[in-house]
Amino acid sequence: MRSPVLEKLNPVTSLAIGLVLLLPLVVTIDWLSATVVLAALVVTVVAARVPIVPLLRRSVPLLVVAPIGATSMALYGQVGGHVWWRLGPAVVSDQSLVLAAAVVLRVFALGWSAIVLGSAMDATRLADALSQVLRLPPRFVLGTVAGARMVGLFTEDWQALAHARRARGLGDAGRLRRWFTVSFALLVFAVRRGSVLATAMEARGFGGAPRTWARPSRLGRIDAIAFGLALLVAILAVVAAVGFGTAWVY
Which one-letter DSSP state was computed for residue 86? Predict the structure, then answer.
């Protein structure tokens, strides 16, 4: 899911925007602030030409998480207004239903912000930005990125082990035992691969003398504009919630 506009942002700016948009969703508990953030994300998706189909596909888990959170809030949230249903500690009232709606909007606002901002964030560019812009230790950053790139190999290793066991006639019975056996084998592979990776990185000078960078990472005008707009959205969300009396500030 690529966006030609969002890919111009520095990864550090994307992280900062995500944190700024998180603030109004943390300090208030209402539907209006979440609606403002969600509307801003919709405008961003359209303006930045984010592909809609991949976005909707990645939003499928939100359709599972949102109803679960909304149901618990509707049953056990703060009671207020007309009571529609009661069974022991579970009470459905006007206030709990409003809270349930706020939970749904918050889940989608948080989820879409992570999906939209994370879709344009490359691991290599993120490592360059963390080391050059935030001045984090290069050894820690590059080691983390190298390890993250190895995560995708776990799926291939799992499939290879499963095929090998099936070829030996060991894959059709004892699923629980097979799961523990394959998991232990993956742990051994991970330790070995980590040792080889650490040795290779040390041999190439990682963690030694001060490093130079092939890809400079800098903040530009588009980063300042994007961060300013995100800050404006966060302020508008809180002001709207407080102004209309819907905000419950912690």
Answer: E
User: For residues 77 and 95, is the Cβ–Cβ distance under 8 A?
Assistant: yes
The C-alpha atoms of residue 152 and residue 45 are separated, in whole angstroms, by 28
- What are the residue boundaries of the structural domains of the chain, listed by start? 6-125+219-243, 137-203
Question: Residues 129-186: pLDDT tens digits?
Answer: 888 888 888 777 877 777 777 777 777 888 888 777 777 776 556 677 777 888 888 8
CB 131 within 8 A of CB 141: yes
Q: How far apart are CA 105 and CA 69, in angstroms?
A: 11
Interacting residues of 36 by C-beta distance below 8 A, sequence separation 6+: 24, 233, 236, 237, 240, 241
Name the burial class of residue 170, with classes exposed (0-12), middle (13-18) and buried (19+) by CB atoms within 10 angstroms of its CB: middle
- Is residue 27 within 8 A of residue 238, CB to CB? The reply is yes
